[in-house]
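R.M. (postdoc): so does anyone remember the format we settled on? I'll just put the structure tokens first.
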């Protein structure tokens, strides 16, 4: 397969430069941090024991095209400030209250969360924003600290929890390169339009979109412990979304995502996968609907990564708040939780796997802690968790996984010491069906997970969705085959996976393949590397709702029969 690296690198370059002397942003942050730690105090209030400033500068260029025509173009350049102010001490501080969603915040709190700061290197203007947000965060910290002390006095559960609220970490000092974008826009416009034009050959595809995004992100971090970090990275992505509709009105969707850290894409591969996806959706239009079913399911890679993100990652993420609300595995360290052949680890230091970029690569997390490899499961035995600076019992140090959405995976790998080929897994699927007295099982060959992050939030539930219907998993199969025990298979559509207990699901993972693939989270914050997975039991049903009538007229340019 021919790569177009020389061409692409001539079209897009990441300009890297080492700033001479102290960076203006870091200098302003450090100056205001020192002033706040020395002088910030309210009458009869406690001084902050910890303050951190994190500014990320984001420069981006984005294109969208459909049917060979450009539909959108956008340039972005902004800086965002996050401030953490803590009062009390490491053992007990203002943190850990019920976290509110963006829309639940008071107007004043919403204004100071992720506040934009000037994009000009003006020290006075930068310090002004730092001062303003620090003042608000300090006053809010005092309020939360007082409320938390009152709650602790009345709570038996809190009295039994002796883990610190905030972990003590060694300061990190790192001066990396700054990155910026230099893009041949005309060349990328033509390339994205050419990719989008491929869908004009498929009359059953009703909506198609090809998007390209290049972004350079520079991070600046300081805290009162002495950390000072400057780092930058670039990420390029091509996103492809398509929609169709079955004859009875069922919506059909599919999605492809490709990432690169240097702008080097394998375009012949992308074109081939576009053709496969379009053919897949066209075939699904005529397929039979899925039936309600409980039994063995084989999930092919890389869609298996979406299954891992939904089921496994939440269980392996730990913080005091997450464990207070759940923490199904908190008492199972050192115990076997999966098949003895399975191991799981997370390693943000890796930037690629089998020539594919890993979106979860980073050097330091958002709390200024160096990212480290974490062995989570070894030979089926639980060994550790993804951790931030919010300690849990038995794990009082961060391993560098405190990110934008709390505790979050970086590059999570699932491996087997006895991997099997896909034909072998398919044979095991049929064998498992016969063992359970079933005439067929299901094979998922393409899947989605409509979510922007892979974190410790458990979205699955064995309860209901609030409207009386059983809760559904976010894991969304797209291409599904009914596989009979005699080897016959039939394409089906419209499968929904019922949400069950993620913990019980671990023991139902019976075998892994030898075909690891990279699945990237929608917004490019993490990657899951997982092979095909055979599950002994999954409950599914026919998708309901969302049916739409077919267009009255054929699409323009199509012949009327």
């Amino acid at each position: 397969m021919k790569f177009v690296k020389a061409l692409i690198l001539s079209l897009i370059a990441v300009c890297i430069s080492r700033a001479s002397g102290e960076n203006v942003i870091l200098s302003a942050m450090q100056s205001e941090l020192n002033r706040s730690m020395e002088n910030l105090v309210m009458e009869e209030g406690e001084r902050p024991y910890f303050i951190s400033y994190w500014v990320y500068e984001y420069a981006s260029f984005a294109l969208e095209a459909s049917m060979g025509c450009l539909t959108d173009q956008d340039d972005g350049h902004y800086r965002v400030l996050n401030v953490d102010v803590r009062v009390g001490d490491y053992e007990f501080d203002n943190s850990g209250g019920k976290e509110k969603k963006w829309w639940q915040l008071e107007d004043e709190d919403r204004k100071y969360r992720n506040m934009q700061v000037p994009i000009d290197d003006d020290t006075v203007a930068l310090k002004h924003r730092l001062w303003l947000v620090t003042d608000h965060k300090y006053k809010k910290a005092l309020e939360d600290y007082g409320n938390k002390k009152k709650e602790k006095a009345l709570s038996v559960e809190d009295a039994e929890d002796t883990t610190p609220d905030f972990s003590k970490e060694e300061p990190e000092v790192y001066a990396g390169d700054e990155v910026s974008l230099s893009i041949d826009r005309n060349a990328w416009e033509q390339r994205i339009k050419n990719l989008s034009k491929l869908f004009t050959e498929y009359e059953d595809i009703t909506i198609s979109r090809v998007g390209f995004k290049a972004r350079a992100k520079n991070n600046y971090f300081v805290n009162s412990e002495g950390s000072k970090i400057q780092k930058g990275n670039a990420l390029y992505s091509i996103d492809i979304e398509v929609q169709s509709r079955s004859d009875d009105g069922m919506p059909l969707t599919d999605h492809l995502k490709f990432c690169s850290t240097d702008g080097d894409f394998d375009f012949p591969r992308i074109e081939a996968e576009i053709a496969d996806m379009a053919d897949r959706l066209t075939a699904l239009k005529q397929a039979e609907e899925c039936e309600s079913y409980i039994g063995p399911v084989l999930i092919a890679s890389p869609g298996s990564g979406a299954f891992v993100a939904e089921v496994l990652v939440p269980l392996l993420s730990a913080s005091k708040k997450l464990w207070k609300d759940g923490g199904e595995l908190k008492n199972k360290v050192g115990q076997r939780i999966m098949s003895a052949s399975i191991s799981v680890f997370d390693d943000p230091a890796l930037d690629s796997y089998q020539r594919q970029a890993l979106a979860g690569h980073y050097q330091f997390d958002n709390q200024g802690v160096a990212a480290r490899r974490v062995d989570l499961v070894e030979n089926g035995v639980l060994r550790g968790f993804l951790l931030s600076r919010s300690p849990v019992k038995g794990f009082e140090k961060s391993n560098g996984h405190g990110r934008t959405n709390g505790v979050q995976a970086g590059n999570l790998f699932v491996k087997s010491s006895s991997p099997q080929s896909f034909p072998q897994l398919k044979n095991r699927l049929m064998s498992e069906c016969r063992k359970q007295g079933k005439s067929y099982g299901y094979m998922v060959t393409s899947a989605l997970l409509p979510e922007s992050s892979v974190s410790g939030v458990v979205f699955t539930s064995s309860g209901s969705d609030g409207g009386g219907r059983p809760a559904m998993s976010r894991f969304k199969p797209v291409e599904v085959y009914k596989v009979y025990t005699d080897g016959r298979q039939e394409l089906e559509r419209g499968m929904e996976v019922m949400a069950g207990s993620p913990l019980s699901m671990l023991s139902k993972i019976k075998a892994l393949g030898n075909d690891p693939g990279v699945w990237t989270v929608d917004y490019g914050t993490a990657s899951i590397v997982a092979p095909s997975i055979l599950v002994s039991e999954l409950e599914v049903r026919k998708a309901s709702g969302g049916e739409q009538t077919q267009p009255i007229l054929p699409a323009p340019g199509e012949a009327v029969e």
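R.M.: ...and that's the designed sequence above, right after the tokens. Also worth knowing: The chain has eleven helices and 29 strands. Residues 5-273 form a domain with the PmbA/TldD fold fold (CATH 3.30.2290.10).
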